[in-house]
Amino acid sequence: MTDQPLTPAAVDALRQQFRASLAAATAAPQLTALKDEFLGRKSGLVTALLKGLGSLTPDQKREMGAQVNALKQEVEAALTEGLAAAQDARPVGAVDVTLPGRDLPAGRIHPLMRVRQQVEDIFLRMGYEILEGPEVEDDFHNFEALNMPPDHPARDMQDTLYLGAPIVGGIWGQHRVPGGPDAQVRAATLLRTHTSAMQIRYMKTFTPPVRIIVPGRVYRRDDLDLSHTPMFQQFEGLVVGEGITLTDLKGTLEAMMRALFGGETKVRLRPSFFPYTEPSAEVDVSCQGCGGTGCGTCKHTGWLEILGSGMVHPAVLEAVGYDPEKVTGFAFGLGLERVAMLKYGVDDIRLFYENDLRFLEQFPPL
Ligand SMILES: [Zn+2]
Fold first, then answer.
1. Three-state DSSP class for 11?
2. Per-residue pLDDT at 92
3. pLDDT digits (tens, 9 = 90+) for 168-219
4. CA geometry: angle at 141 spanning 139 and 144, to 5°?
5. CA-to-CA distance for 235 and 341, rounded, in angstroms?
6. Number of CB atoms found within 10 A of residue 151's CB
7. How many Cα atoms occupy the beta-carbon half-sphere of 142 within 13 Å?
8. C-alpha closest to that of 208 among 234, 243, 255, 251
9. Is residue 260 classed exposed, middle or buried when 0-12, 13-18 and 19+ CB atoms within 10 A define those classes?
C-alpha cells in the first residue's frame, strides 16, 4: 500500500470502495469488520493512506492530508451511525429490555388457611387470645370436664378415634386399670373430637376473665362424603367473666359473620342441645346466594346453618374450679370447612384435602 502513489484519485477510489462496502453491510458484525478493514491501526486502508503522506512534499502533504482526513472522518461517522442503527433494529426474538418482566407463578394460601387467618384477625381485633392446644387428648378434657361423664349418651354424638384402650379393644389391645369401668374409660387417650377440650385446659390454668379462640384439627370416625371428613378443622370461642349474657354471644357472632360474609349478613339462634352449654343454640346466617329470600343453596329457607353455641354449662365452670354463681360465659364452635364452603360456594368438602391444583388455583394469590 505505502508504495502506491498518494493521489486524489487514490483517495477517491478508496472512498468509493468504502461506500460500496457500507451499502452491503447491514448487521453489526459486518460493520465492525468494515471498521477493522478501513480504520485498523496496523493494516487499515485509510491508515495506509495516512502513512503515504510521509513521502510527499510539504505542499502536497497539506493538500493530500486534508483529503485523507476528510475520508477518515466520513468513514468514522458512517460506521458510528450504522452501528447505532443496527443496534436499534435487532432481529425478532432478541431481548427487548423495555418489555415488562414475566410473572413468576405465585403460590396461594389454601382456602381453609385463608378463612382461618380471617377469623383470627377478626378476634384479635376484638381482644381475644388465640391458642391451639394438643390434638391427642385424654378423656377428662375431651369429655368428662365438658359435662359428659363416661356413661353420658351425648358421647355417641361424636364417634371417637381412641389411641389408648377405650371401653372395647383399641390399637394396643387389652388395657385394664384398677377402679372399674369408669376408671377404664378415663384412662383412654384419644384424638380430640372437638376443640372444646382446650376450653378446659385454659380455664384450669387461668382465672377469669377469659377470651380465647382455639383453631385446630379435630378427628371423628366419619366416612368421607360430601360434607364429612375424618379430620376437619374447628374454631372454638370461649368468653367467661362477670355478667356475660346470651346477648354478648349473639353480638359477637354477628360481628364475626358480618366480617366474614359482609355487612348485610343476619344471624339467628335456634334452640339446640349440647352437654356443655345451657341454653344451647344452633346458629344460622342469612343465605349469601339469595340474600334471605330463598334459593337452592339454602333449600329455600333463606338461612344456612353454620355453628353451634350456647352459655357455658355451670357444671363445666365447676369442673375447672370457677364459681358459676360469680361468672358466666358463652362458647361457640364452627367448622372452618363449613365457613369456606359457604363463603366460596364449594359443594364438596373433600376438595379441600385433595390438593388438586385446578381447584386451588381458583383462589386468588394472597
Ligand atoms: Zn338462599
1. helix
2. 62
3. 444 445 555 666 666 666 667 889 999 999 999 999 999 999 999 999 999 9
4. 65
5. 15
6. 9
7. 27
8. 243
9. buried
Provide long-range contacts, Cβ within 8 A and 24+ apart, for 47-50.
48/1, 48/2, 49/1, 49/6, 49/10, 49/11, 49/14
Distance 340 CA to ligand 1 centre (A): 16
Which of 232, 213, 218 is CA-nearest to residue 118?
213
Q: CA-to-CA distance for 277 and 313, rounded, in angstroms?
A: 4
Query: Cα of 293 to ligand 1 centre, how many Å?
Result: 6
- CA neighbor of 216 nearest in space, from 329, 282, 119: 119
Closest CA to 60 of 109, 7, 22: 7
pTM of the model: 0.67
Helix pair 111-125, 246-261: axis angle to 10 deg? 130
Q: What is the pLDDT of residues 239-273, one digit of tens each?
A: 999 999 999 999 999 999 999 998 889 999 999 99
Quote the ligand 1 centre to 257 CA distance (angstroms): 16
Which residues, chain by chain, have CB under 5 Å from ion ligand 1? 287, 289-290, 295, 297-298
C-alpha cell at 365: 394469590
Residue 236 main-chain phi, psi, to 5 deg: -100, 135
